[in-house]
Amino acid sequence: MTREELLTELYDRTLTGNGPAVLELTRQGLADGLGPETLLYEALIPSLEEVGARFERGDFFVPEMLIAGKAMAGALEILRPLLAETGADQIGTVVMGTVKGDVHDIGKNLVNIMFEGAGFQVIDLGVQVSPEKFVDAVKTHKPDIVGFSAFLTTTMPMFKANINALTKAGLRDQVIVMVGGAPVTQEYADVVGADGYAADASAAVVKAKELIRRRRALAPV
Fold it and tell me: What region holds the B12-binding N-terminal domain (predicted)?
């Protein structure tokens, strides 16, 4: 199999969510001398971007996104340590968690996969994350972005509680706050004072890149 054939096959198998084939092709590509960055940026990321585009067009639905995301996550398990060794550029660091009172994590996990695939380092705090734990994580990891996820309307008020906790700790100006989840809207994100909102995982990556670019452009030299 030529280089181009392998990358095309890896793209196609990621698109259809064929996890075993994605793992096999990733290993084969590395054995053939393809660098981890080549596999990531010339096959895996473009494929997941196409998944996001199809989702936005209504050609793919959440199950297809999850399957493709899981297939890519398997490849990332192999590539992540290799990418660290090569010193591959990272766009930024994201601390992510489902808010206190909420145990749903499918959407959060998909967003994490998309972020990692796009070149972010992700620190996942899990579910039922208290404001204090978010504050501690921001202090420890100094991320570019902190993401709050909520699936239940009853837990959405925790967005504001988390932002208030960051403000009280003197950290609010040091980090970009993004929110999301099934019941969340742009209007609600604006009300609680978040910097960004995205309706799905693919849009979250686009928004995160935009917010980081904007902040770095405004940062004093």
Answer: 1-91
Residues 141 and 58 grouped into a single domain:
no
CATH number of the domain residue 13 falls in: 1.10.1240.10
Q: Phi first, then psi: what are they for 126, rounded to 5°?
A: 90, -145
Please compute the mean of the pLDDT values over residues 117-137 and round it to a whole number: 94
In this predicted structure, the answer to whether residue 52 has a pLDDT above a threshold of 80 is no
Distance of alpha carbon 202 from alpha carbon 207, whole angstroms: 9
From 190, 204, 203, 159, select the one nearest 56 (Cα to Cα): 203
Range of the domain at 112: 92-218
Average confidence (pLDDT) over 71-100: 85
Please state, in angstroms and rounded to a whole number, the distance separating the CA atoms of residues 135 and 133: 5
Query: 94 near 73, Cβ under 8 Å?
Result: no
Give me the number of domains the chain comprises. 2
Q: What is the CATH number of the domain that holds 209?
A: 3.40.50.280
pLDDT tens readout for residues 17-33:
999 999 999 999 999 99
CA pseudo-torsion sign 109, 111, 117, 123:
negative
Q: At what angle do helices 62-86 and 201-218 cross, to 10 degrees?
A: 40
Cα separation, 176 vs 178, in Å, equals 7
